[in-house]
Amino acid sequence: MCRPTHFAVTYRINPWMDPAAPYDNALAVSQWEALRQTYLDLGHTVELIDPLPGLPDMVFAANGATVVDGRVLAVQFRDAERADEAPAYAAWFRERGFAVTEPKHTNEGEGDILLAGDVLLAGTGFRTAHASHAETQEVLQRPVISLQLVDPAYYHLDTALAALDDHNVTYYPEAFSPSSRRVLRQLFPEAVLADRADAEAFGLNLVSDGRHVILNTEATGMADKVRAAGYAPVHVELTELKRGGGSVKCAVAELRP
Ligand code: ARG
C-alpha cells in the first residue's frame, strides 16, 4: 500500500475525477490508515512503498504491479500523469528480490489483471492494451481470459469485477460486452451479480480473503449480496479516494511471494 500523503485530484483521466471539486487530503490519509488497520486486524501483513511528491494517484497501489508466484509483471500506464509511478513500483519489487519483467505493452497492473483461482482475468477497452494479455500469460504463467470493458465509468476491471475466493467472483454485467458476459456466465455460473447501484458505490472494488470481504461503507447493497452468499462484509469509509475514481481494491497490490 502507499500512504496518500500527496493524494489530490489535479487532472481528469477517468469520469469520477473532477479537479474543480473539493477533496480533503487529511481525511484521505485517515481513511486510508483505517483501511490499513482493517487488514492488520484481520491478520494480514501490509508492506508500504514511499509516496512520491507530484504523483497524486500513487495511493492506487493496485496499478503498480501484478504479482503471481513471486513473478512480477511491471506496469506501463496509459496516461503521462501516472508514468513515473511505474519505475518506482518496479524498483520496490526488485529491491526485495522479486523477479521483475518490464512490459512491452500498456498494462495497469491489478487494476485490469485479477487472479481468480488458477486463472487471470484481464480487462481491456480503456487502459490495459489487449496485446498485454498475451504478454501477461507468458510472464505470469497462468491462463489469461480477456474481457472487454464497455462503460467508461468502469474503466478498470477491478471497478466491475472481484474474486470472492478461489472459485467464485462478483461482477457488474453491464460493464462488459455481451460476449464477455457470456464468457463470465460460462466460467462462473454461481457468480454474485451486482447491479448499477452497487457499481456506482464502488462496491465491486473490494478485497476478499475468501471469508472477509472488505468494501467501502457506501456499498450497502453489495454488502447484503456477499453476506447472502456466505461471506462476512467488513466496511471501511473511503469517500476521498472515490474522488480519484478508486476504492478498497485500488489501494492495494497483492503480494503473492
Ligand atoms: N485516478 C486513478 C486513475 O484513473 C484511479 C485508479 C484506480 N485504480 C484502480 N485499480 N482501479 O488511474
The total of helices stands at 7
The low-confidence parts are none
- The value of Rg in angstroms is 17 Å
Shape: globular
Bound molecules: arginine
The count of β-strands is 12
Q: Care to give the gist of this entry?
A:
The chain is of the alpha/beta class and 257 residues long. It has 7 helices and 12 strands.
Task: Give a quick set of tags describing it.
single chain, 257 residues, alpha/beta, three-stranded mixed sheet, 12 strands, binds arginine
Could you walk me through the main structural features you see in this protein, from its secondary elements to its overall organization?
- The protein has 257 residues and is an alpha/beta fold.
- Helices cover 26% and strands 18% of the residues.
- The chain contains seven helices and twelve strands.
- Strands 1-2-3 form a three-stranded mixed beta sheet, sandwiched between helices.
- A hairpin with a 2-residue loop joins strand 1 and strand 2 (71-74).
- It is globular.
- The relative contact order is 0.17.
- The mean pLDDT is 98.
- Arginine binds next to loops.
- Residues 13-14, 17, 57, 60, 62-63, 82, 111, 156, 158-159, 244-246, 250 line the site of arginine (ARG).
